[in-house]
Amino acid sequence: MSEMLIKLDENMAQAHVEFLQQAGYDADKVTSEGLSGAEDNVVWQRVCAEGRFFITLDLDFSDVRRFIPGTHPGILLLRSRNRSRQTVLEILGRVVNEQSLENLRGCLVVADEIQTRIRRPPSSGA
Fold first, then answer.
1. Residue 1 — very low, low, confident or very high, per pLDDT cuts 50/70/90?
2. Which of 7, 19, 107, 123 could pair covalently with 52 via S-S, beta carbons 3.0-4.6 A apart?
3. Can you give the pTM of this predicted structure?
């Protein structure tokens, strides 16, 4: 399997990129591509074109009707009551420790301080 490519939204910190890189993922931020302040759909088109799993704090990406599981490389939405870098890092760390992000390809995943909810693509032919 090819290396998992991950794109972090501009609302994520460089510390989050480094955490994922240390965990062995090919991670970068949208800001490293000059997409700072770009509209969500522009960022989304780039993420999909590059086949990158997308990690964001932006609730706009939580709409399962718009971001149908199986139609994209995968989304991890991190929801924290306080958006501090450390709290977000703790949630991200928990998700990564619970399972390999490769297992979340094509899924819409919402994680908070307590739980991770995974909407998987419809199983084919099952």
1. very low
2. 7
3. 0.93
Domains, the chain, in order of start with CATH, read: 5-119 (3.40.50)
In angstroms, rounded to a whole number, what is the distance separating the alpha carbons of residues 121 and 105? 9
Q: Provide CB contacts within 8 A for 42, sequence distance 6+.
A: 35
- How far apart (Å, rounded) are the C-alpha atoms in residues 112 and 103? 18
Q: According to the 3-state scheme, what is the secondary structure of the chain?
A: CCCCEEEECCCCCHHHHHHHHHCCCEEEEHHHHCCCCCCHHHHHHHHHHHCCEEEECCHHHHCCCCCCCCCCCCEEEECCCCCCHHHHHHHHHHHHHHCCHHHHCCCEEEECCCCEEEECCCCCCC
Model pLDDT for residues 61-79, shown as the tens digit of each residue: 999 999 999 999 999 999 9
